[in-house]
Amino acid sequence: MTAQILDGKATAAAIKSELTTRVEALKAKGVQPGLGTLLVGDDPGSRWYVNGKHRDCAQVGIASIQRELPATATQEEIEAVVRELNEDPACTGYIVQLPLPKGIDANRVLELMDPAKDADGLHPMSLGRLVLGIEGPLPCTPYGIVQLLRRHEVEIKGAHVVVVGRGITIGRPMPLVLTRKSENATVTQCHTGTRDLSSHLKQADIIVAAAGVPHIIKPEDVKPGAAVLDVGVSRDEAGKIVGDVHPGVAEVAGWVAPNPGGVGPMTRAQLLVNVVEAAERAAG
Ligand SMILES: Nc1nc2c(c(=O)[nH]1)N[C@@H](CN(C=O)c1ccc(C(=O)N[C@@H](CCC(=O)O)C(=O)O)cc1)CN2
């Protein structure tokens, strides 16, 4: 292993410690931030993520509102809980854990959320604001990745970033975040329909791998010294995470974000940042 580690656990811990001070300042002004979550179904992974979000809230002093529905919940039942969270004054921001069960129109659920309470940055209004360059919550994983790179002093400005994947939480919004003036990267978006992926990867200063295809990023496709962030989550027969990045990449790359321990903890930290920033905006 020659690459340096983009340590998401340690970076997220530093961000959480900074947030604790900001939450104390809000409380001194009489503002109590509260994160709501809506989990539908019994997927153990989703439950683990949601429980982690509430553990994080407790650590920094954010209140928790936890709502759950069974996998059999109807579109109407889910939308009723979204309306409740929109109205609940204790819930200053919330998320609907994705994916929702098959047959549920997730876009309709997201559209029904009060955009002022969108803690994930995934509401159509928040994504529209991102396109237009208007301040608002940023999608947690893409902005978590930017923070992880910045805090390890990996140059983003002028870098050629290749994003592999086009999912709603990472691939689709990642180029929007990276091409803002404040980041100023040049982005190539690839996906499972890209012809000759390897020719694109070879030109990248930074690779964000979020295709969900085990080991799609191979050592021979990585430019020596590049930063490679593994965000892919597939599971082997034992339930262990298999990322998108082949372990041999660590011999070629300059930086690697491991999986687990890289981008995942940053996603959680950025969610808390969004909740605190929304409460700060509301408090003036
Ligand atoms: N409403 C949302 N749904 C989903 C999002 C999201 O940002 N908003 N992202 C993912 C799941 N996710 C957060 O919700 C998430 C994924 C992974 C991690 C994490 O810390 N992973 C650990 C490893 C965990 C393991 O061993 O299984 C790591 O990378 O170290 C946090 C949050 C999809 N849904």
Automatic annotation (TrEMBL):
Domain (Tetrahydrofolate dehydrogenase/cyclohydrolase NAD(P)-binding) ranges: 139-282
UniProt-listed Enzyme Commission number(s): 1.5.1.5, 3.5.4.9
Pathway membership: One-carbon metabolism; tetrahydrofolate interconversion
Reactions it catalyzes: (6R)-5,10-methylene-5,6,7,8-tetrahydrofolate + NADP(+) = (6R)-5,10-methenyltetrahydrofolate + NADPH; (6R)-5,10-methenyltetrahydrofolate + H2O = (6R)-10-formyltetrahydrofolate + H(+)
Molecular function GO terms recorded: methenyltetrahydrofolate cyclohydrolase activity; methylenetetrahydrofolate dehydrogenase (NADP+) activity
Binding site for NADP(+): 165-167, 233
Keywords assigned by UniProt, alphabetized: Amino-acid biosynthesis, Histidine biosynthesis, Hydrolase, Methionine biosynthesis, Multifunctional enzyme, NADP, One-carbon metabolism, Oxidoreductase, Purine biosynthesis
A GO cellular component entry from the record: cytosol
InterPro entries: Aminoacid_DH-like_N_sf (IPR046346), NAD(P)-bd_dom_sf (IPR036291), THF_DH/CycHdrlase (IPR000672), THF_DH/CycHdrlase_cat_dom (IPR020630), THF_DH/CycHdrlase_NAD-bd_dom (IPR020631)
Positions of the Tetrahydrofolate dehydrogenase/cyclohydrolase catalytic domain: 6-120
Subunit structure comment from the entry: Homodimer.
Protein purpose: Catalyzes the oxidation of 5,10-methylenetetrahydrofolate to 5,10-methenyltetrahydrofolate and then the hydrolysis of 5,10-methenyltetrahydrofolate to 10-formyltetrahydrofolate.
Protein name: Bifunctional protein FolD
Organism in which the protein naturally occurs: Streptomyces sioyaensis
Gene name of the record: folD
